[in-house]
Specification:
Elements lengths: L4 E3 L4 E3 L9 H9 L7 E5 L5 H9 L3 E6 L2 H12 L7 E5 L11 E6 L13 H7 L6 H11 E12 H13 L3 E9 L8 E7 L6 E6 L10 H7 L7
Parallel strand pairs: 3-4, 3-6, 4-5, 6-7, 8-10
Antiparallel strand pairs: 1-2, 7-9, 8-9
Length: 235
């Protein structure tokens, strides 16, 4: 069915409601990440493989996706096989806590689950994808610390409040903010998401802002269009 696919300029993604649909968070993160010098990339909680494909489009690194949900792994592997970068992407069925690669990564990305309420999605796979049932903030920070190379960097997107918590936990492990992108829906609204870049080197983080729409629905800001134009067909 047509609704099962989201088509980008250089690839398309099959996605299912029972896992997670392609969303703005993932596209923003994939478009924002600087991966040009990366040689080994890990996507934690890869879902449909969206981030793996977005990063493969703009760099030559070997890319691994790790995913706990078996149905999502099946979908991600299908999407990889349909792409032009199948030789550089591997998807592994595992929790990140049990994931034991042979080498560490110089770049790690994650669009993690973040809902913490007691009311969860009715489908098990969707619940895992949306709620931090299997990957809470501390688990993610510990995994990144274990899997990141000494000079590596990571990028994570969270709701702004949870991103602050993630930064606090990460700093206790020796991972510090290098940059932050605060994302708002409109110019006059507070940030709803933050993309944070971390490394093992303590520095003064560079902060920037982005609003998605100018105010009216589908009246996208020039900054948002510029960031995502290599991917979205509409730009």
């Amino acid at each position: 069915m047509r609704d099962d696919f989201f088509t980008f300029k250089q690839f398309r993604v099959m996605h299912r409601k029972s896992i997670m649909k392609v969303g703005t968070d993932g596209v923003l993160l994939g478009a924002y990440v600087d991966c040009k010098n990366a040689k080994r990339i890990l996507d934690i909680g890869t879902g449909t493989g969206l981030l793996c494909l977005m990063l493969a489009q703009k760099c030559s690194a070997m890319i691994h996706g790790v995913e706990i949900n078996a149905e999502a792994v099946e979908v991600a592997k299908f999407n990889v096989e349909q792409s032009n970068w199948r030789e550089r992407i591997d998807v592994f069925h595992s929790s990140v806590q049990d994931f034991l690669p042979e080498e560490k990564y110089d770049l790690i990305v994650s669009n993690p689950p973040f809902y913490t309420t007691d009311v969860v999605a009715p489908e098990k796979g969707r619940a895992i994808a949306r709620h931090d049932l299997n990957l809470n903030i501390k688990d993610l920070a510990l995994a990144i610390n274990r899997l990141l190379s000494p000079d590596g960097r990571c990028y994570v997107i969270y709701p702004t409040e949870q991103c602050q918590q993630f930064e606090e936990v990460s700093s206790e492990l020796g991972l510090y903010a290098v940059s932050r992108l605060y994302v708002s829906s409109h110019p006059d609204t507070l940030p709803i998401r933050t993309i944070v870049e971390l490394s093992r080197k303590m520095c003064e983080p560079i902060c920037d802002t982005l609003f998605i729409e100018n105010g009216a629905r589908h009246d996208f800001s020039e900054k948002y269009k510029s960031l995502t134009k290599d991917y979205y067909l509409k730009f």
